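tool_call: predict_structure(chain=1)
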Amino acid sequence: MQPTTPGKAGRRRLRHRSQHVDVFDVDGRIRRSDTKDGEFIKTFSPYHLLKEGTTYPPVFFTTSARDDRVHPGRARKMMAKMETMNADVRYYENIERGHGGVANNQQEAHMRALAYTFLWQQLRK
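tool_result:
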């Protein structure tokens, strides 16, 4: 008898059992015991590479409270860490849609307007 594997939704649940674990295998399942991969990921992780005293360009983070692939806590955590470093950071979290960030054309237009407004403000400096 073949062992059963969780479907797509099951893998997502496994992934989100602990929202801030950085090490996943190819199927997205958490490997809590493999710290070697976790240490490797830290060598290119933007969050782990932030350095106090470094001047960063202005940043605009967007996320969704219902993202089923990347927990919004990651964007929140990155924004909070940059705020403590007095970086110029902005944040917007859509509460109505998942990984794509928008549920309809109106939200798409709103998200694009936010992004283009931020870009325009930075180009005008």
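agent: DSSP finds five helices and two strands in the chain. Proceeding to next step.
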